[in-house]
Design brief:
- This protein has helices spanning about 30-40, 105-115, and strands spanning about 5-10, 20-25, 55-60, 85-95.
- The chain has 2 helices and 4 strands.
- It has one domain (about 5-115).
- With about 130 residues, it is an alpha+beta fold.
- Strand 1 (about 5-10) and strand 2 (about 20-25) form a beta hairpin.
- It starts with a strand and ends in a 20-residue tail after the last helix.
Length: about 130
């Protein structure tokens, strides 16, 4: 079986409730590529202190991944003053598990590197009246 890459990320709202998810991407990343990904994450402008196991913040929905805020409460619930768009990247590791989506690890690296994280981002399934609690 060929090696793939497991990307693990977590969402924690301002009240401290959290949920975690992961994806498996085809192929692997070099140490240099992982370092470049980490350097492109938001580490200081979101106003949320990084946890000891967190590599930095990103917005999954901006790069075509699932936002997981609704895993913290009732699915489909409106977002409230505790919600925000940022998720913490907490792991990039090799795995023998099969890919869970039709994307490669190289695609993930490219998306992270070219994206500017946008606080005004809203999930596509949320109406304009469902802003973030900023």
């Amino acid at each position: 079986m060929s090696q793939n890459t497991k990307i693990t990320y977590r969402y924690t709202d301002h009240a401290g409730y959290s949920a975690q998810s992961h994806i498996i991407l085809e192929g692997t990343l070099s140490v240099a590529e992982i370092g470049e990904i980490i350097s492109c994450l938001d580490n200081n402008s979101v106003g949320i202190e990084l946890g000891t196991d967190e590599l930095g913040y990103f917005i999954p929905g901006q790069i075509g991944l699932d936002d997981i805020q609704e895993l913290v409460g009732n699915p489909g619930r409106p977002w409230d003053e505790d919600d925000h768009p940022f998720h913490a990247l907490i792991g990039i590791e090799k795995t023998d598990e099969a890919p869970t989506m039709g994307r490669t690890a190289a695609w993930f690296a490219e998306q992270i590197q070219k994206t500017r994280w946008d606080w005004s981002y809203e999930r596509p399934d949320m109406g304009s009246d469902q802003g973030y609690g900023m």
